[in-house]
Amino acid sequence: MTQTKERLVDWYLMSFGEFEKTLNGEAQTRLHALRRKAISKFVDLGFPTTKDEEWRFTNVSPITNLRFLPVTEPERSEIRLEELSVVGLPDFDCIRLVYVDGHYASELSLTDGLPAGVTVGSFRSGLKEGNNSLFQSLAHHAGYEREPFTALNTAFLQDGALVHVPRGIVVDRPIHILYVSGRRSRPFLTVPRNLFVIQDGARVSIIESYVGIEENIYFTNAVTEVVVGSGSVVEHDKIQSESVKGFHIGTIHVSQQERSTYTANSVSLGGGLVRNNVIALLDGEHCECTLNGLSLATGTQLIDNHTTIEHAKPKCVSHELYKSILDGASKGVFSGKIFVRKDAQKTDAKQTNKTLLLSDEATIDTKPQLEIFADDVKCTHGATVGQLDEEQIFYLRSRGMGLEQARDVLTYAFAREVTQRVHVEPLRDQLEAMIHAKLHRGRIIQDDRETDE
User: Fold this and answer.
1) How far is 181 from 212, CA to CA, in rounded Å?
2) Nearest CA to 305 among 297, 294, 290?
3) Residue 87 contacts residue 131 (beta carbons within 8 Å)
4) What phi and psi, each to the nearest 5 degrees, are found at residue 185?
5) How far apart are CA 106 and CA 9, in angstroms?
């Protein structure tokens, strides 16, 4: 590590010491023993650099150049429910958990009408109530031993969302978990930690959203663990629309058992530097895993998507479609790995990455990968990078459209292949409106830059 990064690691170590002083009796719990191990591992690992293979396209120095103060205590929130409808809460019938600066806000949440036996609530409350299912799965899937940002999350772990659906239960309303970064005067760090345990034969739809009330500087370092039981069906939508001055590192670890189905739709619109990690382990026969992703970046945003699908057992199917739309001087990264173990015969896996460049300054680094150790498999991958088709633009303009409208129609059609896979209709409608708005803002920014030049 450089001297600057060493000092930053010391900053978080010092912050951890201040955090410990507030814990009182909690400092003797199993959870805090886990925190101590995690901060020790974080100090050993330090922050990644571009010399690390998994980070060679993404320089995290914008994060390491700032000292973010961990938000370890909830504060009285002045955020109103009406404000959330503007930034990330479409009006639809759902179970709702709202977190402000990483801490549960009961006055903004709604958990009535849950099926009997289903637990949906605050991670902190579950810990206080001695929920044993937390420690049966917590940190068992999202290991912190080799991932510095996961180690940092685990070290300051306090709150997040706990979803537990017992065997055979169908939750017929979506569960919406909304993380809101609020109004703080100095750079701050939040560490949302989510644990979703979906037991055998259950079915649920979970929406995980991250939004910012204001364009201030903060760092969201989120970790989600998803346990998908045998024969269960899980749809998991993640929407990230934070401040373009903010930073977002999000990691999702999924463990699937036999005959389960897991579908993830990830949409990233905000953040100055964003890294989405999705690691899925297909650990039972006849699993089906689908990962869809859409990134829309403008200005100088950087959005990095890293995925790993590990086929550990035979006769599993995986599908992956990730798309990026890049404008201005933005940058995209896609690294997707399909790993097939020796005994995972009859694997059927397909991975596709497509990028649309809207300007000459936008760039993409794409790295699709296959690692196959079984001989009876069907695996494909591919990547394409291109610009809008001039012939299609000409056709639309010949039908009376202006140039910008024609560009928007084609760009939105490119994005729609992913957004249409979101099953919750009000959320899908909101995403469409957000994409249109971002394209419009990006065009204004680009026009202003060209005028200045």
Assistant:
1) 5
2) 294
3) no
4) -85, -15
5) 33
Q: What angle do CA 305, 306, 310 make, to 5 degrees?
A: 140
- Calpha distance 321→420 (Å, rounded): 13
> Which tokens hold the place of 203?
């079915």
Q: What is the pLDDT of residue 394?
A: 86
Residue 178 has a pLDDT of: 94
**Cα–Cα–Cα angle for 220, 122, 236, nearest 5°?**
65
Q: How far apart are CA 353 and CA 351, in angstroms?
A: 7
Structure tokens belonging to residue 308: 């790993």
Tokens (6 digits) for 193? 């930690």
The rounded average pLDDT for each run of 10 residues, N- to C-terminus, in the chain (453 residues) is: 66 93 80 93 94 95 94 78 71 90 92 92 77 72 92 95 95 95 88 96 97 90 97 97 95 98 97 97 98 96 98 97 96 97 96 96 95 94 92 87 86 92 90 85 56 51
* Integer CA distances (angstroms), 234 to 116, 172, 204, 266, 294, in order: 19, 12, 5, 14, 19
Q: For residue 30, with 0-12 CB atoms within 10 Å meaning exposed, 13-18 middle and 19 or more buried, which class applies?
A: exposed
pLDDT value for 133: 64
Collect all residues with Cβ–Cβ distance below 8 Å to 229 and sequence separation of at least 6: 167, 197, 198, 199, 200, 201, 202, 257, 260
Block residue for tokens 């409808």: 85
pLDDT at 2: 56
Dist. CA 306–CA 27, nearest whole Å: 35
The helix or strand, by DSSP H or E, that contains position 55, with its residue range, turns out to be: none
State residue 449's pLDDT score. 53
For CA atoms 84, 187, 365, 289, give the dihedral sign: negative
